[in-house]
Design a protein that fits this description.
disordered C terminus, Conserved Hypothetical Protein Mth637, Chain: A, alpha+beta, two-stranded antiparallel sheet, 8 strands
């Protein structure tokens, strides 16, 4: 821990936050950051079909037919997911996990949500199903 000495000789210890969730999405597989949707993904490359699955803990299962080679499965996943959120692929940012089954996406200003997102409880101050 970093401590700072003040001119009076007293030491200052910055407070540790105990309310911060362990990840950006807390206990859910998604969260909102303004108009950006943050989604934790558990990817399944080389699947028989492209599909949005069910939540598994704090991740959403997403299967893609592309093979996991040089991040191509993630690129395919982004192109597959874009129309489900009503956005171009360029509106989806891979925060981490480009070459890993565990990944986080930031979807900027989605115009629609797949049904699995509407089944989760979303606070009323956030994007509703009618948008």
């Amino acid at each position: 821990m970093v401590t700072r000495s003040h001119s009076s000789g007293a030491r200052y210890h910055p407070p540790m936050s105990t309310t911060r969730p362990r990840n950006a999405t807390g206990d859910s597989f998604f969260a909102w950051d303004g108009d950006t949707l943050i989604v934790n993904i558990l990817g399944k490359p080389s699947a028989s079909k492209d599909a949005i699955g069910k939540p598994k803990g704090t991740q959403l299962k997403v299967s893609v037919t592309a093979a996991p080679k040089d991040g191509k499965a993630t690129d395919h996943m982004v192109r597959f997911l874009a129309p489900h959120f009503g956005v171009p692929a360029s509106a989806i940012e891979v925060v981490f996990g480009q070459e890993n089954i565990n990944k986080q996406l930031r979807i900027h200003a989605p115009k629609k949500l797949p049904p699995v997102f509407l089944q989760e409880r979303v606070p009323s101050t956030e994007l509703s199903a009618g948008h």
